[in-house]
Task: structure prediction
Amino acid sequence: MTDAWRSHLLVTFSGQSSGRPTWVERIERGDDEGYFGAESAAWAVHGGMPTLVAGIRALLMQTLHPGAMAGVHDWSRYQEDPLGRLSGTIQWLVTVTFADRENARAESSRVGKYHDRVVGTYSDARGILRDYAADDPDLLAWVHVVFTDAFLGCHELWGRSIPGGADQYVREWAMAGELVGVQSPPRSHRELRDQLDAFAPELKSDERVAEAVRFIRNPPLRRSMMPAYRVLFAGAVASLPVRYRRLLGLKRSPLPVITATRAVLRIVERVLGPSSSSEDAARARIERLRATRHPA
Result:
């Protein structure tokens, strides 16, 4: 059972049962230590198990902006190939976090080229029809702050200490936002809260949101994985501020889901191991570079 779980988890996250897709091989190459480095807040947050819950929380939050939801509804293949979309997002996150700078820029450019064709119209929170494009500054900012907030919030609930604290993580991850075109990303926890709050008048819930939430609640995972996933979903919902839960039409479970989520994350860590192949590849690159600079 453990081997089956491990294989399915690795396929889900990386697209390969070995857990080491081709883009991880590129992380081991490169001529610098990357934008962050081994002692960074970004490594601590993105290398931790709470990312499993943070991804769910970020997806739920993204649905609340009607422009972002329109892009997902009109262009995303999340229902036909949800694991493919997930692995693509993971590829960007992991590459920017752990790879050298050239590789991180190239991966961000790949994402940007996909955004070039995502255009359409949507009805905003006031019922006004608007044009949208995935590279609109407003939409890029929304996705960035939601992502940053989700990964920080979940790590604070279930993760280990962050080097430099919340401010350091937000400040570091601003670089990732800039790589995909975000203008003036937040550089402190306070700025993150202020920017997220500023979006409140633009958010709305409708049938598209309800449809996406139903899909996120019941994704096409193996039946054996669903009990653990349901706990992680409940943990993601519990981690959300009340106002967002209400907009999403979700209620916090009366059960001790924060504790249950922690237990599931520990089980997953035992199954997968304490470090990822991406982090191992990055450490190998850094050790090689340091050995070259300071030969024995």
Remarks:
- The mean pLDDT is 89.
